[in-house]
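Chapter review: from sequence to fold.
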Amino acid sequence: MCAEVKRKINPNIFFAIAIVLGVLTGYLQNLLFFSLAEAISQVFINLLKLVSLPIIFLSIVSTAAGMESMEQIRRLGQKVIKYTLLTTLIAATIGLAFFVALNPAKGGVSLREGQMLTEGAAQPSYLSFFLQIVPSNVIQPFYENNVIGVLFLAMLLSFAIISLPTQHRTVLQPFFSSIYAAIIAITRWIVAVMPIAIWAFITLFMRDLHQGLDVKSLALYLTCVIGANLIQAFVVLPTLLKIKKISPWHMFKGMSPALSVAFFTKSSAAALPMAIRCAEENVGISRRVASFSLPLCTTINMNACAAFILITVLFVSMSQGMSFTYPEMGLWIVLSTVAAIGNAGVPMGCYFLASAFLAAMNVPLHILGIILPFYSLIDMLESAINVWSDSCVTAIVHQEILQEAMVGSSSENTLKDCEIII
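The token string follows.
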């Protein structure tokens, strides 16, 4: 009975209650409330750091290692991967363009003493992390919070697993997937106590606001994230569809049930069954293509996540005193794309990945706490956009296969490969 009641209660109700209570306790300016909020916020930040690097490493390994041999996915898989990389890179680039144009970090956000990096130890260099891409041992990148080294190890191990005989892959891939599932279970527990963390961060937010917090920078940050995602959803993806002579309105109308599920569940993975059904029945995509492309896209195609990670990492780190050259900002397009591809289609996946990068760069995560109350809406928007991108990529792949069928017999080989994979 208790479980049924919990399922009926919308989690957003708890978030709203936490925000209201946080505003009230922050308005009271009580030192006891502030001390309690400081303690709770620090525990939540420690939990973010605890799961950050394991999420990056295991998500990439379990995703890449789960693929079949490169030869089997070469024909159909390369089409999906090509458009996944293209759209994700475009999304990250748009995010960077918004960030450079609006420069939300110019005023800084947190005014708490001792929190700015420029006031304490020497500022960590982004280039130093990039130069340490090849670690001297397996433990080093985890011990030193070297996220670049962790990404390198994850990709290296993934390609190695793919190259192994089938009997070894069938053992290693489930092993890493199971560990990853356990880490995701831990993150769900963290999300379950998120209303308490939201209360703490809102309380501290009200305290900082009383002390002169720059709300304009936060508003510019949210404008960057939402604006970049809307441009991707309503300009870039429809343009790609039109180039392939596919009606964006027909696609949107047909996939709208799946988009609604993704929006309200905040999970592209939860919307996958509905997305496959809508693609086949409403849009007319073949079962073979939809059954292969959509699950793969749900795993690796995270357009909105790429923009969020890039903007959030740059915003938080620069608000804490770090500085980046334009080439270094450009490299973040690649990093956010790789991280987004390895992200799981679960609630708050992008948030945890952004915290992983910041923790690895030794950047204080308190500003992430200020962002947290707004992330619920951002997460809903991002999940819907990710499923919309998955649908567009699948439709484009289906269209290309049909065009190949008109030209010659190459599409037959493509569909045969698809049958092998499925």
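Two observations follow directly from the output. The radius of gyration is 22 Å. The mean pLDDT is 77.
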